[in-house]
């Protein structure tokens, strides 16, 4: 890749930063950015600009003085990154000089740095189609796998990487960074990564966090912070104001990534609750006693009638379709 091409990509990255930070950023802007950042070279340039912006903020007072001083910024002057890495001096941001740095700083200074005019940090929205999962790789190589119909908004901030799960389910494989922790907001609940792989499910008033590697902390309402380590699952039911911690096989909880739902001695009511997340038609259990029936096995994620037909082969139930609703009854 030529130096001029690298410079063009960096300028594009700076333009995207400014556009997404604007109050006028539109859905079309976010979709356009998502297409642009899919190129690994563009993603690397965007991450570099993001890092440079944080560096600028670290030295905002010095930069403000330099930009407003009588002599302006002198070519060759540099502010090293904290810790003495000297990244700016050796590599530069756009062309290797502080003059280029000043150009970048001027583009962002008013919109993201000055306290009196600070705008909200813009987020990037990622969503999965209703009938397909989706893998999203962030600039820091953190991976988010979205279940069908799930949606997240990703916010890159100086002190935190923050993801808002609007609905549904997602698995997070986080690249740990103690200086910029990673957290997931799911409704009123916050899940904070401590270097790990974990799954988060929002299902109405119920939150379920399953940890495959490492550990997370969960802060839910007025409850004390709960640490969840690998091979455990923590569920909070806000409707009943109850919570439960139990050992699990994480691969079962994340089997949806392979198109399956795996159950081990699970109540039919819980299975139907899961199935309703994938079904265009509601599924209802008439008799609470039927909901207590237990099932162990795997269901392929497909049409609701097909999954219910599978359950009918293993449980003493009959399924009828009444006015567009699948009704599950005890077999007579």
Number of helices: 10
Largest sheet: 13 strands, mixed
What is the average per-residue confidence, as pLDDT, rounded to a whole number? 79
Kindly state the percentage of residues in helix: 25-40%
Name the overall outline: elongated
Q: Separation of termini?
A: 72 Å
Give start-end ranges of low-pLDDT stretches: 1-7, 71-120
Query: Gyration radius, to the nearest Å?
Result: 25 Å
Number of strands: 18
Could you tell me the strand content as a percent range? 25-35%
Class by alpha and beta content: alpha+beta
Order of SSEs: HHHHHHEEEEEEEEEEEEEHEHEHEHEE
3D structure, described in words:
The chain is α+β, with helices and mostly antiparallel strands and 332 residues long. 33% of the residues lie in helices and 33% in strands. The chain has helices at residues 3-21, 27-37, 40-58, 60-68, 87-91, 98-113, 250-253, 268-278, 288-291, 304-314; strands at residues 124-127, 134-137, 143-146, 151-156, 161-173, 182-186, 189-193, 197-203, 206-213, 215-220, 226-229, 232-237, 242-247, 260-267, 283-285, 294-300, 317-322, 325-330. The strands form 3 sheets. Strands 1, 2, 3, 4, 5, 6, 7, 8, 9, 10, 11, 12 and 13 form a 13-stranded mixed sheet that branches. A hairpin with a 4-residue loop joins β4 and β5. α1 packs across α3 (40-58) and α1 packs parallel to α6 (98-113). Residues 1-7 and 71-120 have low confidence and may be disordered.
